[in-house]
Structure formats: structure tokens, C-alpha cells
Amino acid sequence: MKITAVEPFVVDGGMRPWLFLAIRTDEGITGYSEFGESSITRGMLGLVEDISESLIGKDPGPVEKHYMDMYRAMRQAPGGATGMAIAGIELALWDIKGKRAGVPVYDLVGGPFRDRQMVYFSHLATYRANAAELLGVKPLRTMQDVADCAAEAVDKGYKVFKTNIVFPGDPSRSITQGRSGPEHDQTAPKELVRPCRLADQRDA
Predict the structure, then answer these.
(1) What is the spatial distance between Cα 174 and Cα 35, in angstroms, rounded to a whole number?
(2) Which residues contact 60 (CB under 8 A, 6 or more apart)?
(3) pLDDT tens by residue, 72-115
(4) How far lies 10's CA from each of 7, 16, 22, 42, in Å?
């Protein structure tokens, strides 16, 4: 089996792009992975293309060797985005290896640790504050709306959820570390805080 192509691609996730990778082979098996950081989409795609050039024509089987070869080749710029790109390639190689053997990848690396996994509701109120219409859910206009969406998570069976700092209103807003422009330090501007304080006083 030989690698014929390494193809990173972007999927529109609505609120942000999602990065995926396909490694294709001459035997028709394709390995897939999700990788990277959506805030540097073009850079991630370019890194994968540059790093993976040396894999074309090679057997995808020796995954660990390919990983070390890529890491050594990028020794002057390790970690960070480079590490994400290498990880995306490595995961797709493992996917090929599992499909080639006809077993889940976890069977190749010692077997599963568990057969059940607790999960949490991620960015519960954050997404509603920023994209309620896209999600087809009730917008966050009041603090009661925030409480209601927390109760909804419990009703759906979640025991844990996380969110960022949210400010209900019209429009509602959230502050997200690293994705809110000049507010990236999560310091709330006064025009957001003042209406919420007034609302709290009225509710009291």
C-alpha cells in the first residue's frame, strides 16, 4: 500500500471552520482526521501540505516512524501549529492502519479504557448568545433565559455544562477568551455590564 495524496479540507461549521484531513492510498483505503485551530485556517492547511510532501509514495503502515520523521524535519519550528499539523497527519495514518487491519484503532494500541464516557454540554449559553438564529433556539434576552437554557441541559440528561461570560439582551453578547477581538482578556465593557446590573436590581 502506498500513500497517493494528503488532502486537508475545511468544513463550514456555522460559527467557525472545522479542519479535516484525508490521506488516500492506492488500495482505496482513506484515513481521516480532525485537527488544528480554526483561527489560523489557511496557515494550518499550508503546514499540512508542506509537512506531508515527503509521505507521498510511502507505505502508511509505520506510523511512529513517519511521526518521528516529520518531527525531526520540523525541529526548528516544533510545537504549536506545527504540532497540530503533524498530529492531524498522524491520526489519519492510524485510521488507515485500523481500516487495513479491520479493527478499531484502539485495538492497535492496547484496547479501550472504558465503554462509557461522561460528557458535558459545551459552550451552552455562549453559542446561544452569539448564534441563536443559526442554532434555531431561543435567544438570550434576560437572565431568566440564561437560567432556562441551563435547565434545558439538565432535562437533556447532562450533569455538567460549561459556558463563557454571557450578557443577555438585544442583541445578546458573550466574551470568549481569544475570540472576542480587543476583549480577549475577558474584561467586560461598561456598556454590557451596566444594563445587567440594572436588571439584577429590578429583579431583586
Answers:
(1) 25
(2) 1, 2, 3, 23, 25, 31, 66, 93, 96, 97
(3) 999 888 889 999 999 999 999 999 999 999 999 999 999 999 98
(4) 10, 10, 11, 9
The predicted-structure confidence for 137-187, as pLDDT tens digits, reads as follows 888 998 888 888 888 889 999 998 888 888 888 888 887 665 555 555 555
Written as one letter, the residue type at 126 is: T
With beta carbons less than 8 A apart as the criterion, state whether 99 and 29 touch: yes
Lookup: cell for 63? 506510523
CA distance 89 to 70: 10
Residue 95 carries which side chain, given as an amino acid letter?
D
The yes/no answer on whether domain 3-108 falls in CATH 3.30.365.10 is no
For the chain, the domains span 3-108, 124-203
